[in-house]
Every structure is written in structure tokens, then in C-alpha cells.
Write a structure and sequence with these properties.
By secondary structure, the chain is mainly beta. The protein is 6% helix and 38% strand. The protein is built from one helix and nine strands.
Length: 123
């Protein structure tokens, strides 16, 4: 059963977001790049009911891979909902989201609402 967030939590997490695309499932991409180089992919691991790292900073056009290392299924779902949603990520599975527009994008797990993270997208 998916956990519902209270109005106060939704309001606290809400940010204006747009320009996101959910990519097809695929193996996790590379993490980071040499100083000054454009980052093409960033990896977020899900372990012990936490996103690691909890906050990532990337350049526009970068894919973020969410890989589940827990036995429970998780999601990476935009807050507010409707901007992006990885769908269920089972143990060992990876889902990718491409962030095309600059801004700060907050997300959470719909099954475990205490799990939160954010992606800061620079131009």
C-alpha cells in the first residue's frame, strides 16, 4: 500500500518542476566526471531505506540512476507528483531519470514517505 503524505508535508516539499524524462530501465551509469567536465550520469543508491547520496548536483541533460539495494521495493517519485516517477524499483533493479531543466527537484519513496532526496540541476 502506498503511503499518503499530509498536506503540510506536501506543501513543504513542493517545488516548481518541469522538463524531466523517465528513461528506459538499464544498468547503472557512471558516477561523476573530471573537474570542469560535464556530468553525463549520476548514481543514487538506495540502501537501508535511504537515498545515497541524499542530494546530488548535476548539469542539465544528466541522467540519474536509482539502484535499489534493499529487499523492499522503492520508488523515486517527484514531489509534487506528476513530474517524474521511476515506478517500482525492486531489489537489484535500476531506473533512470533524465533531468533536462535547471532547478531543484525533490523526490520521495511512495512506500516509505520518510525517504526523501533532491536533485539540483545546474544549466
Amino acid at each position: 500500500m502506498r503511503t499518503a503524505l499530509t498536506g503540510a508535508v506536501v506543501a513543504a516539499l513542493a517545488v516548481g518542476v518541469s522538463g524531466l524524462a523517465l528513461a528506459k530501465d538499464s544498468p547503472s551509469g557512471s558516477q561523476g566526471a573530471a573537474s570542469g567536465a560535464a556530468v553525463k550520469a549520476m548514481k543514487v543508491d538506495i540502501q537501508n531505506f535511504k537515498y545515497k547520496p541524499q542530494t546530488v548536483e548535476i548539469k542539465a541533460g544528466t541522467k540519474v540512476s536509482f539502484t535499489n539495494g534493499d529487499t523492499a521495493k522503492h520508488t523515486a517519485t517527484s514531489q509534487p507528483q506528476g513530474k517524474f516517477d521511476s515506478g517500482d524499483i525492486s531489489k537489484g533493479q535500476t531506473k533512470k531519470v533524465t533531468f533536462k531543466t535547471p532547478g531543484t527537484f525533490r523526490y520521495y519513496c511512495v512506500y516509505h514517505a520518510f525517504m526523501t532526496g533532491s536533485v539540483k540541476v545546474d544549466p
